[in-house]
Amino acid sequence: MVAKQPHLELRTSPHVKRGVTVERIMLNVVLALLPIALFSVWQYGLSALALIVAVTLTCILTERMFNRLGSQAGSLSDWSATITGLLLALTLPPSFPLWMGVVAGFIAIALGKALFGGIGSNVFNPALIGRAFVQAAFAVSISTWAPAYAPHRFSEFIPTTFTMPFMTPADIADWAKHALDGFTGATPMARWKFETYFTPAQDFLSGAATASAGETSAILILLCGAYLAARKFMDWRIPVAVLGAAALTALAFQIYNPERYPDPLFVMLSGGLMLGAVFMATDMATSPVTPRGVWIYGAIIGVVTVMIRYFGGLTEGVMYAILLGNALAPLIDQYTQPKVFGERAKVKK
After folding, report:
1. What is the DSSP string of 261-286?
2. What is the pLDDT of residue 241?
3. Domain boundaries, the chain
4. Whole-angstrom Cα distance, residue 121 to residue 115?
5. For the chain, how big is the Rg over CA atoms in Å?
6. Pairwise CA distance, residues 126 & 110, whole Å
7. Could you give the CA distance from residue 302 to residue 311 in angstroms, rounded to a whole number?
8. How many whole angstroms separate alpha carbon 42 and alpha carbon 344?
9. Deepest in the core among 12, 86, 205, 229, taking most CB within 10 A?
């Protein structure tokens, strides 16, 4: 009787696989973004809902168009276009005209994704490409704000929502008068920069502060990010590095001049830093992959954000800081590659 020979199979690494697909990761990111989107609708009502739907549908349809044309790889089933639409909509003011949101969605997919070949090939975060375009093209509308929790937000739209192309947007000042008393129309960052007014931390935590559609509830953003980190669908080191570097930089400036510069908590909770650190800086296609690289990448974004806020002409710097980090990501990976086991150091002649 011949003994049965053991079967030996040789394969290259990786030898252990999680069985996690791109579609599954992206779907979980969508699920994590939904509570933030729903909270935005609760804050700003019909206009926020219309903006989120319009921008997301534009991204999906643009993705479909380029897939059919063969200009990029991927499909709608990978959920990446949905993520881009949701993130882009959440970075826009709830009073943003819908046609401008459609332009932003198209640019995000066309220039931010299809131009580079599709999912996984893009160098920059597509949602931020769309946001940067409308920041330059529609400077007035991108800095026009509406009050949160207006009593009539579910019965009527913000007047600027249906502004037609090439028409002057309606003035929302009169509309806001009977919404909330004392509404200034300025974000906490703008009030600090131009009026040296420090918004209370509870306004950021409750969502009462004026900001873009998805940037007002820091606790909700952190909870949704913690869900992704717990499922290992997000590298937790990146948001920790971003927020930590921003906090330390802000602390240094506050120690230098406490009457002029806000405390680290204000810096972390205000503007789009929390949303950017948790959901945009962590984009797998545009962030480093080396252990040391992710810390350097996050630290650069945090420091640059504070520098732009303090010394730049804009009140917010998260978008440009992340885009700069995206551009540096390949270089960071190159210089932080771990040493191969057994490799000898090169001897200079």
Report:
1. S--HHHHHHSTTHHHIIIIITT-TTT
2. 96
3. 22-185, 188-193+225-335
4. 9
5. 22
6. 9
7. 14
8. 60
9. 86
Task: Give the residue-averaged pLDDT of 163-184.
Answer: 63
Answer yes or no: are the C-beta atoms of 146 and 93 closer than 8 Å.
yes
Express each pLDDT in 192-207 by its tens digit.
667 666 677 666 666 6
The dihedral formed by the CA atoms of 247, 250, 255 and 261, expressed in degrees to the nearest 10: -140
Please, is 342 exposed, middle or buried when counting C-beta atoms within 10 Å of its C-beta (0-12, 13-18, 19+)?
exposed
* H-only helix segments in 45-138: 46-69, 80-90, 98-110, 126-137
Encoding tokens for residue 280?
A: 């945009």
Kindly tell me if the per-residue pLDDT of 1 is higher than 60: no
CA 208/CA 283 separation, integer angstroms? 28
Helix (H) or strand (E) holding 337: none
DSSP 290: S
What are 73's strand-pairing partners? 118
Residue that the structure tokens 């009502």 belong to: 45
- Give me the long-range contacts of 15-24 (CB less than 8 A, separation at least 24): 18/232, 20/233, 22/78, 22/119, 22/120, 23/77, 23/78, 23/79
Q: Decide if 46 contacts 157 (C-beta within 8 A).
A: yes
DSSP 8-state assignment for residue 73: B
Between 64 and 191, the more confident residue is: 64
Q: Give the residue from 101, 102, 80, 84 showing the smallest Cα distance to 92.
A: 101
C-alpha to C-alpha distance for 90 and 300, rounded to whole angstroms: 23
Query: What whole-number distance in Å separates Cα of residue 70 and Cα of residue 64?
Result: 10
Distance linking the first and last C-alpha atoms of the chain: 64
